[in-house]
Amino acid sequence: MRIDRAKQKVREQYGSVGDAYVRSIGHATGNDLQRMLDLAAPRPTDVLLDIATGGGHVARTFAPHVATVIASDLTPEILHHAETYLREQGLANIEMLVADAEALPLPDHAVDIVTCRIAPHHFPHPDRFVREAARVLKAGGRFLLVDSTVEPGEAGNFFNTFEKLRDPSHVRSLTIAEWQALMQDSGFTITATETFGKRHDFADWTARSRVPRDTLVRLERMMLEAPAGTRQAHEAEIVDERLIAFTDSKTLFMGHT
């Protein structure tokens, strides 16, 4: 598998964090997991592909409801940690696959459901990712995507700069309209678009990515010195000139082939 520089950054970042994303409460929990399950309405005969599985939390949620889960990720090390976690849960119907989301090593029309949660902001070419999701789905298949989304303009630009400083493998969080256009261009009929806020404890958010101390200081200062409208948009919680937490937007999209 040939890896370009942006994708190599992802491997470097996530290959070095151990099982932090397996243990992350923020990734392991959330109403969006149950909502994905409800919308997908999985059948016992379904084959599901979870793209960029990370800590394996979507795979864990869906595995009891489908025949097979293919848990894929670009980074072999994080896939190993996810596999250990999933086996500990007693789940025996999960296959692990090292795969690039933008060039999946699967035939056309191979799966019934494709999921991808809190990962596409790392993809250099999200249009290719969406096309690949459409390609591997059977007719009538379901595509469920959850990712950070931003408003157009200043607040959105701020968030992308803020996130990339914490995690150099971040490429860009898209707007809702951009995701909808990509899905429609790939032939999906969009049947759900649901947005919700996700609160991030600043200390945990930076520790999970092993942010160096000087970068942590820069991140905190960025939020403290951001325009009032930007701080308000991110619901910045500031106590005694310290950033305690902030909130970003996640959007759940569902499309049918």
CATH superfamily: Vaccinia Virus protein VP39
The CATH topology name reads Rossmann fold
Mean pLDDT: 91
Rg, Å, rounded? 18 Å
Account of the protein in words:
It is a single chain. The protein is α/β, with parallel strands linked by helices and 257 residues long. The protein has a single domain, classed as Rossmann fold, CATH 3.40.50. The protein is 42% helix and 26% strand. It is built from 12 helices and 8 strands. Strands 1, 2, 3, 4, 5, 6, 7 and 8 form an 8-stranded mixed beta sheet that branches. α7 links the parallel β4 and β5. The protein is globular, with a radius of gyration of 18 Å. The two termini are 28 Å apart. The model has no long low-confidence stretch (mean pLDDT 91).
